[in-house]
Amino acid sequence: MKLLSILSALICACLLGISVSADTLPEQTAEPEPILRSASPLLIDNAHVYAHMQQSYSQGYEPVIEGDDAVIVLPLICGDDEKPDSVRVSVTPLPDSPFIVRSYEQTVPLALHADSDGAEHEIYLAVFRLAMHAERMNGSYPVQIFAGELGSYTVYVNITDGKDPNAQDPAPEPESFTEPQPDPAPKEEPVVLMPKILVQNVTGGAVQAGGTAELHVILKNTSRTEALQNLTVTASAPECFSLVSADTLYFERVPANAEFEAVFTCQAAPDAPAGAVSMPLQFDFAYGKGMTGSGTGNAGIQIGQPVKMSFPQVVLPAEAVVSDRLELHIQALNLGVTAAQNVRAELVCDGLLPEGTAFLGAVSGGTSAETPLGVQVTAKRGAEPYGESEGQIIFTYADESGMEHTETQHFTIMLKSPFSERRAEPKQASPKYWLWIMAGIGGGILLLAAYLFFRHRKRVQG
């Protein structure tokens, strides 16, 4: 047994003495870490109002209540250049909320949607209708919306058509054999939320600088329970504008959840710059049992500055010989304050071949531009290559909105043959040539007659 122990110790010592080389170990290759691409962030479009919305998110968006449904609108914009074609958006109501718990999930595509002003935006527009319990309580309830990995958002739904959570149940009537019960505590009045007035639409809001516009502002009392009393709507003229009509309108009563119209007439200054401006509105009203409220809004106005262009008459010669070359001077004068874009002139005439189109480009307000236009004189088409030809010069330009305008100048020109001037020279010299011939013949006759006369007289004298 002692010998076996000694042999075991020797074997272990030999094994421990053997060195292990790094070359004998299998080479381990580190796997490359996967490259994770960050998801594109989705942001709420808080500047515009879309369908089923009464105000933008920046104005304090509140979902509307339609019957027993809460309609939630979530407009999302992608902050990345590479936008996904669609996103998966879902809502899971909490069990203790007034909403019926079910799966609310939808695939929202990236598409163009028009806002309340008619402008289109490329967004993901998610619209959810959350069904509510009939026995719901009034209050403000958060609803969380998830867009996968791209973000989560919280929207608060204000319910005012349900039961008052602070209302107390009536105390049971005391029985005859019991002791008298103390009077119950006085019942608290339900909380009445202040109504809000929103601008629904504005018509007639386009006006030319120096002109007058009649703005029809459609307003809405968003409260479903409270009417407005002694309402005043006051408008403030924006810069470069003046109010022609009264600046304050009075409405004795506006029913709950009703629309009404306020009409203002305003005038734009002649030098008002083109673009969009807002007319501030102030609301003051009474509601409920003697309570007062106020609010603000804006009515959009679009100002247009007309382009005033003038084109001096282009001077052409009364007549031109075929094969000649003409050089015309094209001029444009901008008499307004708005720049004209893509100003050009085109000559159209049978027998005149222009060397392209005279392009003057952009002409700023109060400036002028000119450019030469080369024209080659050719024969007219048809049986009569020469003679009078009618033509026109068409001026084209575009205003700031991209709409094109045209003005036309008409002219006539006489086209002549290149040989017409050469045939005229012998015709002009022809009368002088025959005059000298006749004079020579007449002189010869006179000399012959004088010779015969002197010869005859000499014979008679001899």
What does this structure look like?
The protein is mainly β and 462 residues long. It folds into three domains: 42-159, Immunoglobulin-like (Sandwich); 197-304, Immunoglobulin-like; 309-416, Sandwich (Immunoglobulin-like). 13% of the residues lie in helices and 44% in strands. It has two helices and 26 strands. The protein has helices at 2-17, 420-461, and strands at 42-44, 64-66, 69-78, 86-91, 104-114, 120-131, 139-146, 152-159, 197-203, 206-208, 212-221, 228-235, 241-243, 248-254, 259-268, 275-287, 291-304, 309-310, 319-321, 325-334, 340-349, 352-354, 358-363, 368-377, 387-398, 404-416. Strands 1, 2, 3, 4, 5, 6, 7 and 8 form an eight-stranded antiparallel β-sheet that branches. A five-stranded mixed β-sheet has the order 10-17-16-12-14, with no helix packed on it. Strand 16 and strand 17 (291-304) form a beta hairpin. The longest helix is centred in the C-terminal third of the chain and has 42 residues, at 420-461. The N and C termini lie far apart (207 Å). The relative contact order is 0.07.
